[in-house]
């Protein structure tokens, strides 16, 4: 069981529109997260392709940039790897992170090929036997068509 006094430490793979938006939301909602979970959340490392690129969203407080996926995945303090990269590298990062004992949250779509998706599912199944959680971040909360469908239910 996790130490409830220890923050949940996140490694963020990707810091474009989705990754930057996620980092901003985590920071803006830190109080709500703490209230609902009893834990702080901390982004420790951010994996990017180009560390020199100008960013539109500030790096989370205390977070370091890296261009090396292994540096993020093998950091013993990181509990969760959130994958916000282009789809064609989702599988490689997710499978490596799951094999390293990290929980994984992967943005949609899960993968760019059926073979990659199957490999990810197999890695997630094996990791689940060790208590590791893997999930796809695919929600419909703000889709107008879903709101309309709810009115019919």
Concise overview:
By secondary structure, the protein is an alpha/beta fold.
How is the secondary structure organized here?
Elements: E1 8-13, H1 17-28, H2 30-37, E2 41-47, E3 64-66, H3 69-73, E4 80-83, H4 90-99, E5 103-107, H5 114-128, E6 134-137, H6 144-152
Parallel strand pairs: 1-2, 1-4, 2-3, 4-5, 5-6
Helix pairs in contact: 4-5
Architecture overview:
- By secondary structure, the chain is of the alpha/beta class.
- Helix content is 39%, strand content 19%.
- It is built from 6 helices and 6 strands, in the order E-H-H-E-E-H-E-H-E-H-E-H.
- It has helices at 17-28, 30-37, 69-73, 90-99, 114-128, 144-152; strands at residues 8-13, 41-47, 64-66, 80-83, 103-107, 134-137.
- A 6-stranded parallel sheet has the order 3-2-1-4-5-6, with helices on both faces.
- Helix 4 (90-99) packs parallel to helix 5.
- The chain is globular, with a radius of gyration of 16 Å.
- The mean pLDDT is 91.
The main sheet comes to:
6 strands, parallel
Sheet/helix structural class: alpha/beta
Task: Please give the count of helices.
Answer: 6
What separation lies between the terminal Cα atoms?
A: 39 Å
Strand content: 15-25%
Low-confidence stretches: none
Rounded average pLDDT? 91
Shape descriptor reads globular
Spell the H/E element sequence: EHHEEHEHEHEH
Care to count the β-strands? 6
Described by its quaternary structure, the protein is single chain
Strand order of the largest sheet: 3-2-1-4-5-6
**Percent range for helical residues?**
25-40%
Computed CA radius of gyration, to the nearest angstrom: 16 Å
């Amino acid at each position: 069981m996790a130490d409830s006094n220890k923050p949940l430490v996140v490694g963020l793979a990707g810091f474009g529109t989705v990754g930057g938006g996620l980092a901003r939301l985590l920071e803006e909602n830190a109080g709500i997260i703490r209230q609902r979970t009893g834990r702080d959340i901390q982004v420790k490392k951010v994996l990017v392709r180009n560390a020199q690129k100008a960013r539109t969203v500030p790096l989370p407080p205390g977070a370091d940039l890296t261009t090396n996926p292994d540096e993020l995945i093998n950091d013993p303090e990181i509990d969760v790897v959130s994958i916000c990269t282009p789809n064609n590298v989702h599988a490689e990062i997710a499978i490596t992170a799951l094999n390293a004992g990290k929980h994984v949250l992967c943005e949609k779509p899960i993968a760019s090929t059926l073979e990659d998706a199957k490999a990810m599912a197999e890695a997630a199944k094996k990791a689940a036997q060790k208590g590791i959680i893997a999930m796809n971040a695919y929600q419909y909360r703000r889709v107008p068509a879903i709101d309309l469908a709810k009115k019919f239910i």
